[in-house]
Amino acid sequence: MSTNEDLAERESVRRAWALSAPALIVLTLAAVGPLLIVVIYSFLSPGQYGGIEWKFSLDGWLGVLFERDIFENTLSLADGNLTIFWRSVKLSFITTVLTFLVGFPTAWFIATRSPRSRALWLFLITIPFWTNLLIRTFAINQIIRNEGILNTVLLNLGVISTPIQLTYTDTALLIGMVYVYLPLMVLPLFATIDRFDMRLLEAGYDLYAGRLQVMRRVILPIIRPGIIAGSILVFIPCLGAYVTPRILGGGKNMMIGNFIELQFGQGKNWPLGSALSVTLLVVVTIALLVYVRTISGERKNG
Amino acid sequence: MTSDVAVEARNAVKAFGQGDTAVRALDDVSIQIRKGEFFTLLGPSGCGKTTLLRLIAGFETPTSGQILLDGVDITNEPPNKRPVNTVFQSYALFPHLTVAQNIAFGLEMLGRPRAEITSTVERMLALVKLEAMAGRKTSQLSGGQQQRVALARALAPQPKVLLLDEPLSALDYKLRKEMQLELKRLQTETGITFIFVTHDQEEALTMSDRIAVMSAGNIQQIGGPREIYTNPVNRFVASFIGETNFLSGQAGAAGVRLDSGDVIEVEGAAAGVGKVTVVIRPEQVRLAEAGEAGTVPATVESLVYFGTDTHCHLRLKDGTEMVARLQSPASGEAGLQQGQTVGLRFAPGAARVLED
């Protein structure tokens, strides 16, 4: 290689670093830094009034899965923690499925409108983002509580004779989470459906596929990237959801987010909170890898 | 009871829109397409040819009228219940499937056994000469190859009728020529009825057994390529198929007296019809010495060299413009000069009369 080319290459490498430096610095400080602190904290001892003591301890990590009997000093599996983990995963999964079931027809509807009304529909989808999540969640609570709009209307219509008890149930939580995360499913789905060549539907029908077969064999495989993106965007924040389960689930129906917060607040057990946070991160990463791997594997065999 | 009619449209009307603004894309069209023939629907865009094709495929339902397949009314059958396949203008290949999977799609939907599907796909790949591409994604293929996949995919389920919606329009000239021959070969080999939609008259003439020329939602003429070219029934057909000279005049006992005052003999010009239009193809115009007996005098306006032939633009005494297509001599020079006066002679039987 000539010296000129050498110089040019070195120059372009230098420019690439210079251009990405701001992002790298922000990412390092804002993402890697706190994460590192959380990891370090998880290996320390809890301070008496919150905070940590700089003394190495594995108790935080043990606390993720086990609980120590104070009197006998024996370890037993912490059923409570596992229940909360399982609940979180289950509710997040159901929310993801529900947002897809509601979001797919919505996204299809928007993508098949004329370009002008399409902009309006997309605009409407994004409107909820203008209002604070906390306020929107309280609003949902107002709608579904015993004296709320939903029950009042149903009672007056004579559909039900006693109010449906929704507040502080998993159903309430699901309603709230589906509502909050729906746009995150609709938008990526819309983006892929928008690029979908509608003439493929005719090709499918022409080649003897019925409506269900066209859906299963043509539409779903082609918009798969949108489904993957939407599911990830919904599932991950769901798993770490804090505000929605706090307000709609009451104090007792906790999800991991609330459980972690509890450790940093009332529980005064920062190392356990940190260990739980790292666990959540690892679980999400593994779940993602498995999910993406399975989906793209299916694609190869399909 | 069994006739040789594969597809029939009876008084098919298709209107788009409602009330006063409704547009009749197809205005009371009746047509019979025979089994095993290469039938072409030819016309300019918006003439209703694609609408008729979509009615046969089942993508549109006629506003009134019927569509019959093998004598059975299929007007209200959905496309997936019709033993008819389409080659789309855009090909509409499934991007998530390989070439082989695309071809297998229809057979799979019909629930054919695995072994049959595999062997049919192999046969189809061989038919369109794409054996080496079986495992490729369709996006990795060239336009001509995609075209072949679309053909193989539509032929694989062995439809009673194959519909082709301007399938060659996206290909370049040379490839289009190749595919024309290929299509004709496939049609002869498979014996399937082909209904081909195009706006390209040359394509229609070279491939078809019969052609229906359409305009404004109506069929203007149905006939073989020769019949349509040499004996157009009206001005639209004459002008749409190939280049044509239109000369207006009065029919009389001696022949047709053109507006330029010259009298020419025209076959089939019944005496006393009155005002008529004489149609003559440019290649049927012969040039002779000026003033020779029985010729029509004209002035050479310009000469355009086209390789195989030279177009000679002429002007008659009254200013009527004409074109003569002369075979280029070996030297490339037609031996004519601009402004030169020549005599025109029309090949016997070449001139036709259209009633106005």
Q: SSE layout and pairings?
A:
The complex is a heterodimer of chains A (302) and B (356).
Chain A: H1 3-41, E1 44-46, E2 52-56, H2 59-65, E3 66-68, E4 75-77, H3 79-111, H4 115-126, H5 133-144, H6 149-157, H7 170-195, H8 199-206, H9 211-222, H10 224-239, H11 243-248, H12 256-264, H13 270-301
Antiparallel strand pairs in A: 1-2, 3-4
Chain B: E1 5-16, E2 23-34, E3 38-42, H1 49-57, E4 64-69, E5 72-73, E6 84-87, H2 99-109, H3 114-127, H4 143-155, E7 161-165, H5 173-190, E8 193-198, H6 201-207, E9 210-215, E10 218-223, H7 225-230, H8 235-240, E11 245-251, E12 256-258, E13 263-264, E14 274-280, E15 285-288, E16 296-305, E17 309-316, E18 321-327, E19 341-346, E20 352-355
Parallel strand pairs in B: 3-8, 3-9, 6-7, 7-8
Antiparallel strand pairs in B: 1-2, 1-4, 4-5, 9-10, 11-12, 11-14, 12-13, 14-20, 15-19, 16-17, 16-19, 17-18
Walkthrough of the structure:
The complex is a heterodimer of chains A (302) and B (356). Chain A has 302 residues and is mainly alpha-helical. Chain A has two domains: 3-41; 76-301, MetI-like (MetI-like fold, Orthogonal Bundle). Chain A has helices at residues 3-41, 59-65, 79-111, 115-126, 133-144, 149-157, 170-195, 199-206, 211-222, 224-239, 243-248, 256-264, 270-301; strands spanning 44-46, 52-56, 66-68, 75-77. Chain A has a two-stranded antiparallel ribbon with strand order 1-2. In chain A, helix 7 (170-195) packs antiparallel against helix 10 and helix 12 runs antiparallel to helix 13. The longest helix of chain A is centred in the N-terminal third of the chain and has 39 residues, at 3-41. Helix content of chain B is 24%, strand content 34%. Chain B has eight helices and 20 strands. Chain B has helices spanning 49-57, 99-109, 114-127, 143-155, 173-190, 201-207, 225-230, 235-240, and strands spanning 5-16, 23-34, 38-42, 64-69, 72-73, 84-87, 161-165, 193-198, 210-215, 218-223, 245-251, 256-258, 263-264, 274-280, 285-288, 296-305, 309-316, 321-327, 341-346, 352-355. Chain B has a six-stranded mixed sheet with strand order 6-7-8-3-9-10, with helices on both faces. A five-stranded antiparallel sheet of chain B has the order 13-12-11-14-20. Chain B has a five-stranded antiparallel sheet with strand order 15-19-16-17-18, with no helix packed on it. The longest helix of chain B is centred in the middle third of the chain and has 18 residues, at 173-190. The interface between A and B is medium-sized, with 20 and 24 residues.
